[in-house]
Structure formats: structure tokens, C-alpha cells
User: Fold this.
Amino acid sequence: MKRVEMSVVHVSWRDAHSGHRGWQAPEDMQQFVNDSEFVVQTVGFLLQHDKTWLTVAMSVGGGMGCELVKVPSCCILKLRKIGKVFLDSAEFEVISKLAAKREAKHARRHHRVVRQSFSRRRVLS
Assistant:
């Protein structure tokens, strides 16, 4: 059976958060503005990391993954590789499908950006 290596990572990232529900007095609103940022710690199997997103799966097994977390790369404060895990091919199948979709999406986006840049050049010329 095929064995595939995956990285397990710890990500520290800045999350968006909201204040109390309902109406608030100005001093309460200012307190929320002054509050420190909300930092989240996530550990999981690294599925993807590029300039836009980092995606991890909390659990992988039986050809499936669950508890996927997608973090905007601009919100990452710290990324640390914890170690490597070797999965059998059935567990890796879901990862391969996700990676293939991601690559196809990236290729389509790149093609669209290139096409748009050529269109703009024609308009500007």
C-alpha cells in the first residue's frame, strides 16, 4: 500500500471577532476598540498554504477529512511545523483530490488574470 507523507502544523492566527450583542454605550464601544486582538491556535494536517490561504484538516481517515479550517494567509502570526505523518493511500485520497482542485482553481485564476491584463493593455494602448 502506498504511503504518503503529510506535515502536521501549529498555526497562530489573528481572528475576526465581534462585541456584545445589542446597543452599547460609547465607553463600552471604546473598550471593545481598545481590547487586544483575538488570537487562535490551530493544529492540523497541512492541506494547502499559498499567498492567499492556509488550509488544515483536524482529522483524516478512511479516505475522508473533517473539521477543515481555512485561514487567510495575511492573518497568520506564526506557522510552525510540528512533524510529519505517513498516511496510507486511502487516507491520502481526499488530500489528493483537494490538491488537484486547488491546482485547477489556481490555473484558472492565473489564466483569467493573464487574459484580463492583456485586455487592459489593448484598452490602454
User: Anything to note?
Assistant: The beta strands are 3-15, 38-49, 53-61, 64-72, 76-88. The longest strand covers residues 3-15. The chain is about 35% helix and 45% strand. The chain has one domain: 3-94.
